[in-house]
Amino acid sequence: MSFLTYSFSIIFLLLGTLSAAHRLKFKLNDFDPEALESKGVEYNSTHFHNLLDHFNFTEKRTYKQRYWSTDTFFDPNRGHAFIYLCGEGPGHFPSANSLVFDLAKEFNGFLVALEHRYYGESQPVPDWTLENMKFLTQDQSLADTAYFIENMNEKFKLEYGVKTPKWIVVGGSYAGALSAWFRYKYPHLVIGSLSSSGVVHAFEDFYMNENQVEHDLAKSGKRCLDVVTRFQEYANQQMDGSESQQKAFKALFHAAEMENDDFMYYFADVYVGWVQYGKRRAFCKKIFELDDKKLDMEGNMKEYYELGLQGGTVPSEYEFFTMTNTTINPIHSSRQWTYQFCTTFGWFQTPDPKEPLRWKKMDLDYWHRYCEKAFGAKIVPNTYHTNAIYGGMRIGEITSNTFFTQGGDDPWQWAGIREQQKNPDVYVQVIDCDDCGHCIDLHGNTPDDPPILTATRIRQKHAVAKWFGDSYSFEQFCIKLS
Q1: Nearest residue to 195 via CA among 390, 445, 433
Q2: Torsions phi, psi of 108, nearest 5?
């Protein structure tokens, strides 16, 4: 293709994955190459040589950062493009059924996906020893993004004849925070940000997560919360019993040799995971069916184990050896993400101080031991750095052209922006509906979407069009989606 010179607009999409208790579960729909092919979408996969350390100018080493791209929808007369940056897990090209894909199609955009350092194939170091983890910070990740954009600017100038690129950064979850932070720290490189479920405020003690889960379960009726509470209290009692009692209880979950506190970490994640990812009503329905069976508690626990499997939560994912293995494996992410929350973000999910549900021993001392056990050193998250450098909850007052969204059922919403801002250049929407969980707006449209979710996506498109200076209007979006 040959192009004349056009103003070039790029949406930079950063998608992360915060699991129910730090573990990776969230995906922006499943990646399906056949679905893309059926829509006539061809994409390339290649690598970019990014800098190992952006803040040490004597360090000349680089690493290969993987990315994917397609120009299937690209119209140089409109000059729009979208880049999706994967978060704390192996990257992939966006699904054909996602907001990212819809935006690229809607705005005739170029689409790029960039993998996060230390995840997937984008490995800057030979192993994951503690010394080699020092380059895994949000500061380095944001600088990766900046360096990538600057190099892409040159690439598009040469290949597409584009002189003045415009970028919009978009992300969800951890990368939703990166998205908002990037607009704030690098406003000369991006013109706007969509931050879905962006966890912009670091908390060491994140008990609000459990409080929200309890609130969400009660939305399906007091009975749902009561049954879950009964199950959790029974598990708590077993773990407070004798060693043989503890082992027999864990054996019901095929985890007899698992450490007690790690097992209880898993146990709570069973219900938290269902709620976080928009399956609260389905979970409570299954809980009601289980309660109606009138089983003894041993029978209930066996069924509860099956509920965990159905929700994608299994004890083996919580075995601690996955945190201590320093050998690089492109499909593994636990050690890297554990390093990030242990050193920087916290978000330690502790029992609600007023109405505790989790085991009482899942306190800050547990999490400090957890981090020390993972890395062989006393580590406490430097949440002050994150909040002082990037604004924390005040980012909405000091940034511009940013759209924050939160799922009404998402327990992570309390680490993000929920309140409307006086700043007219910042938009906030809490998508308060049944099963509107983590990053709900970043999935593709479905016929069953609640009105508030559809309206939120309309507002997001309207904001994107405004930032681009596009001729699209809010009314046009309404017509298209009606």
Answers
A1: 390
A2: 50, 55
Query: Coil, strand or helix: which one is 113?
Result: strand
Contact present, 475 and 455 (Cβ < 8 Å): no
Exposure string over 8-20, b if 16+ CB within 10 A, otherwise e: bbbbbbbbbbbbb
100: helix, strand or coil: helix
Lowest mean pLDDT among 35-39, 48-52, 106-110, 120-124: 35-39
Res. 459 pLDDT band, cuts 50 70 90: very high
DSSP line for 427-448: EEEEE-STT--TTGGGBPP-TT
Residue 394 burial by Cβ neighbours in a 10 Å radius (0-12, 13-18, 19+): middle
Q: What is the pTM of this model?
A: 0.90
Residues 6+ apart with CB under 8 A from 469: none
DSSP string, 286-303: HHHHHHHTT--HHHHHHH
pLDDT band at 14 (very low <50, low <70, confident <90, very high): low
- Residue 267 pLDDT exceeds 50: yes
SS3 readout for 225-269: HHHHHHHHHHHHHHHCCCHHHHHHHHHCCCCCCCCHHHHHHHHHH
Would you say 83 and 15 are in contact if contact means Cβ atoms under 8 Å apart? no
Name the 3-class secondary structure at 145: helix
Length of the chain: 482
Asked if 404 contacts 427 with a C-beta cutoff of 8 angstroms, the reply is: yes
